Amino acid sequence: MPSIILIVDDEAGGRYTLESILEEQGYRIEMAESGREALEKAHQFLPDVILLDVMMPDMDGFEVCERIRKDPILAEIPIIMLTALDDRKSFLIGLEVGADDYITKPYDRRELRARLQGITRLNRYKKLVEERANIEIAHEQLLAAYDATINGWSNALDLRDKETEGHSRRVANLSGKLAEMMSIGAEEMVSIRRGSLLHDIGKLGVPDSILLKPDKLTEEEWVIMRKHPQYAYDMFYPIEYLRPSLDIPYCHHEKWDGSGYPRGLKGDEIPLSARIFAIVDVWDALSSDRPYRPAWEKSKVLEYVREQSGKHFDPQVVELFNKMIAEI
Question: What is the pLDDT of residue 128?
Fold first, then answer.
């Protein structure tokens, strides 16, 4: 897209002289015959550079430049002042009102082209930097909106099942601490937190009669309950930014010895984030009251976790988990 140059001169000869100098340089040329028209066209076209004559009736170039610099929409547009006045006072006034450069008539064609090329190049670079910064800000805002949505889904799950209220936030926090102890990278830490908050999202596909049953489930009901990891995968795989977080919702019921579900993964086949989360999930579940049993004592839960090392849980993760709990 060509740079837009706004030429401002009350004399037609001056305007067309500049146009002839610049017509083969690939610019889009717009013209204004007065200061007021210059302000109107500056708003209309948002030019990349303004070539502004000083000596004009009603509103001279200095006043136009000053008004542009006070206008928040136009303030950063580069301005080159053009005048037949070759005196220091005019030069200083131009700088004081905000001009970026100053060229006297008659123009040296090569000098004018070179100065204009330098300013448009800098202005284009500045716009690219601003655009990239805006893209980064927009990206951060989008991610913040995504995370707010994830938190909303997590809260909705907790509200659906009052017995597990707060469970998702607790396991997300503990999983993050355990992941830090394992020197997990920052990017994967984000995925672990998101996956932890969404670990039971597949239960939205489980009927309330099963999910909220105040007693042990029958074998037929367990068949349905065990589908919730697959439900989670099917729900969120189409959402590209959530795919790195799917390991926990999809695999947190897999077991180290291969006896888990839904795919019967074994050992290192299970994603590390899911191995980390599995211990935290069981810890929080056993440490909390349920309709069919009271919460276990901390020592009993720790004993169970140790006993399940190499069966349900990754032995290395169990070792670090024990250290973490001892420090809490």
Answer: 67
* CATH number, domain containing residue 89: 3.40.50.2300
303 & 167 share domain = yes
SS3 51: strand
Instruction: Check if the beta carbon of residue 225 is closer than 8 Å to that of residue 207.
Output: no
3-class DSSP assignment, residue 49: strand
Considering the domain architecture, whether residues 179 and 303 belong to the same structural domain is answered as yes
Q: Report which of 167, 164, 184 is spatially closest to residue 176, judged by C-alpha positions.
A: 184
* Threshold 0.85, pTM exceeds: no
Other Cβ atoms closer than 10 A to 235: 17
* Per-residue pLDDT at 161: 60
Q: Do strands 49-53 and 4-8 pair parallel, antiparallel, or not at all (unpaired)?
A: parallel
Q: How far is it, in rounded angstroms, from Cα 115 to Cα 206?
A: 70
Quick one: how far is CA 13 from the chain centroid?
51
290 beta partners: 293
d(CA 20, CA 29): 10
Domain region containing 53: 4-133
pLDDT in tens, 52-110: 998 898 899 999 999 999 999 999 899 998 887 666 777 778 778 888 888 888 888 88
Q: Which residues of the chain have pLDDT under 50?
A: none
Q: Are residues 267 and 202 in the same domain?
A: yes
Amino acid identity at 246: L
Alpha-helical segments (H) within the chain: 12-22, 35-45, 61-70, 88-97, 109-160, 167-181, 186-197, 208-211, 219-225, 228-236, 247-251, 272-286, 298-307, 315-327
Report yes or no on 276 lying in a domain: yes
- Note whether 308 and 202 are same-domain residues: yes
> Chain centroid to CA 108: how far?
48
Residues 176 and 322 in one domain: yes
Q: How many domains does the chain have?
A: 2
* 108 within some domain: yes
